[in-house]
Amino acid sequence: MFSVEEQFNAIKRGTLEIVPEEALKAKLKKSHETGKPLKIKLGLDPTAPYIHLGHAVVLRKMRMFQDFGHEVFIIIGDFTASIGDPSGRSITRPQLTQEEIGANAQTYYDQYCLILDKSKTKVVFNSEWLGSLTFTDALRIAAKVTDFANRLSDGKPISLHELLYPVCQAYDSVILEADVEVGGTDQKFNILMGRDLQTQYGQEEQVGLFMPILTGLDGVQKMSKSLDNYVGIAEPPKDMFGKLMSISDEMMTEYFTLCTDVSLEEIDQIRNDLASGKAHPMNVKKRLAREIVSIYHSKEAAVNAEAEFERVFSQREIPEDMPEIEIKASDLDDGTILLPRLLVKAGMAPSSSEARRLVQQGAVTIDGEKWNDPFAPFSPRDGQVIKSGKLKFGKIKLD
């Protein structure tokens, strides 16, 4: 049994805010005394099924609760995904079909079980209760919610749909009788509304535990697949390792804190050693990459990934294995293709504009030779090796 203080200190690691802290301590104390586990809630809308390290920040916190003996509930928002999620933004997330929701939910399940203990994770779909509500039921629930003043005072257009979405998420907490809801800072309004609605139903309020948004590899924006600044938790070890080696030195302590199990005391020592020059940033970054790869693969895989990284990037060699870039005759115009189009087709750039920028910056090579003109026709040959940036390689295969 872990003591209340041990649990609280571990849970608090890396959090931005716990609302309120004293309530979490009280819940942990009561659970410790009664032997009754807390119900820990995480809501997931299956709209973007590719899980990366940014998502893992929250999932790893959920796993910590599991290790302390508490119950983890994943609420798959299939009902809310079917109507779209505005999340306080002017552009709503797209509405999904039931087939898309089902496929995404399964993909989520396969990936988050790389972090959570599958045997201790309870998965429920909020369509089970939201889908059966009558219009009268919905109005009665909505009548219990009044805390929209700040949202309305911004003077921005807001739809009724946007107002009702947080009510749906809050009602999930009522049905579950959640003790703690974990989420990113972008979910603060919705999670706090769950507390308010639970009060209206005579329940003990859940604690809101808010995790920071992980900075992406670019060091500017949050980690996102659409921004191509992400590390997927299901990526091959060598890809994970190589991507992590691209982060700035300034970001290393953030990643150590949010993405690894290294103790806070050791992270402080790493920070001091970097500042004093006692530790070389390259060696620290390799340690970081090994730690993260080991979590999602194995220590052996991490060691092998480091060796491959040193062989390719330190010794300027090409990878032993690389994906093929299949080019069909229909892709060519008089035997040529624009290189930016080829990069996008091969998944080596997220968009044509980004591909053009990479070429113009000299970040793209063909058989080791830089290609600087994004508008010059390129005549591909079988077996040519294309490198985009520091990390992405591909070998041309003419069909």
Describe the structure in your own words.
This protein has 399 residues and is α/β, with parallel strands linked by helices. It has three domains: 4-211, Rossmann fold (3-Layer(aba) Sandwich), CATH 3.40.50.620; 237-314, Tyrosyl-Transfer RNA Synthetase, CATH 1.10.240.10; 324-398, Structural Genomics Hypothetical 15.5 Kd Protein In mrcA-pckA Intergenic Region, Chain A. It contains 17 helices and 13 strands. It has helices at residues 4-12, 21-34, 53-67, 78-83, 98-112, 127-130, 135-142, 149-153, 160-176, 188-200, 237-244, 252-259, 264-276, 281-296, 299-314, 339-345, 352-360, and strands spanning 17-19, 39-44, 71-76, 121-125, 180-184, 207-211, 324-327, 337-338, 364-366, 369-370, 377-378, 385-388, 392-398. The strands form three sheets. Strands 1-6-5-2-3-4 form a six-stranded mixed β-sheet, with helices on both faces. β12 and β13 form a beta hairpin. α11 (237-244) crosses α15. The longest helix is centred in the middle third of the chain and has 17 residues, at 160-176. The radius of gyration is 24 Å and the shape is globular. It starts with a helix and ends with a strand. Residues 87-92 have low confidence and may be disordered.
